[in-house]
Each structure stands twice: as C-alpha cells, then as structure tokens.
Amino acid sequence: MQEPKYKRVILKLSGEALAGDKGYGIEHSIISAIARQVVEIERMGVQIAIVVGGGNIWRGVAGSARGMDRATADYMGMLATVINALALQDALESEGMETRVMSAIEMREVCEPYIRRRAIRHLEKGRAVIFAAGTGNPYFSTDTTAALRSAEIEAEVILMAKKVDGVYDSDPVNNPDAVKFDELNYIEVINRGLAVMDSTAASLCMDNKIPIIVFNLTVEGNILKAVMGENIGTYVGR
After folding, report:
1. E strands of the chain, at which residues?
2. Predicted pLDDT of residue 91
3. Chain-centroid distance, C-alpha 83
4. How far, in Å, CA of 231 to CA of 172, rounded?
5. Topology, domain 8-236
6. 77-112 pLDDT, tens digit each
7. Is residue 182 a contact partner of residue 234, using CB atoms and an 8 Å limit?
8. Domain boundaries, the chain
C-alpha cells in the first residue's frame, strides 16, 4: 500500500465550509463527511491537527464594519470557533477517533488550554487535535493561526479546505473565464493578493517554508488525496 507523503498535517477548515449551502450554522452531513475522511487518514498513520474558523456563526471583521469595537468583535469570533471545534470533536468521536480540543482562550470546562508540547504529545498518541479560539489575540485570522500552529508543531503541510478546487486569478463564481493555478510561490500569492490566505499568514508560511495545498472540501476523498501527494487543487510553496 502506498505510503502517505505527509505524516503530520494541519487541516484548515473555514467556518463557512461547515455551513454548506445554508451559509450559516453547522451542516451535519458536511461535518460527518469531514470526520470520516480524517479518521481514514489517521488510520494510515498520519498525525492530524485541525484549525477551524467561525465565519458560519460570527465574523469579527463584519461586526467591526458595522461599528462594533474590533477587539470585541474578534473575541466573539474566537468563541464561535470553539462552538465549531466542539461540533467537530463530537463528529470525530462518533467515528471512534480520540480527540482533544485545545483553545487559545482558557475555558477548562469544555476544552484544554493550548500548550505546544501537550499538543504534540496528543498527536504522537494518535489523537486528532482541534485548535480553537484562533491565536487568542484580536486582529489575527484563523489563517494566521493555521500558519502559526503549523510552525509550532512542525507540521509538514497546511491543507486549506475550501469550497473551490484551487486558487484562481479571479473569483470563479463571478468570472467563468477565471484561470486556475496548479502551482504558485509565496511571493506571487502575497503580491497578487490571491485568495489563499491573508498576507500575514502567507508571510509566516514563507518564512518557515510551510507548503500549502488549496483544494475542494466538498469532494469526498480529497483530504486523502492531498495527504498522499496527489495533484489536486493548487500547491503553494518555495
């Protein structure tokens, strides 16, 4: 049997991806499909950590745009990610997988505080680790959380799961002639403002040489393909 290309990965899930076509809340069928795929790759010996967003419940930037204090709005967004993390934990445990939710904001009744060495130990024991509450700081996105946690736990790749099948030169929803990239380097992503991740996260990945694979989450089996190193989506590196 073919060996996975990557042995320790971070899966970045946007909150919007968990909402499905509704655009808000949590779609049970989607979160269950994600759980099945995560369990599949864990059984192949892959250590997996997950960073989840909260945009299906609350977006701090949107709250700020309506006049709310930005820090307050961002903290509300961090709490939304905890809700998503607990839902994902429940789905994974329903599939028989051990998990730990680790939050950058302490709330010991529902999850562990984030401690780097403890997170690595959980991964080594075959547990899925779900990182919640972003970095614990306002003004930083969950994309930046994914880049930061990847560097901290020495993940080999960030799997950016989205609703589109890669990175395009313009929005493929609004432009049917949008061109998809098979491969990009970090500087291109930053200079062209491509919708991979925000510039802070992209710079952090570039500085720490963390590759990124952007792929379509809605196609079941794509997480496995990405871990195996198959040519799907868009690869960002170098």
Report:
1. 8-13, 47-52, 99-103, 112-113, 128-132, 157-162, 167-168, 180-181, 183-184, 212-216, 234-236
2. 97
3. 15
4. 20
5. Carbamate kinase (3.40.1160)
6. 999 999 999 999 999 999 999 999 999 999 999 999
7. yes
8. 8-236
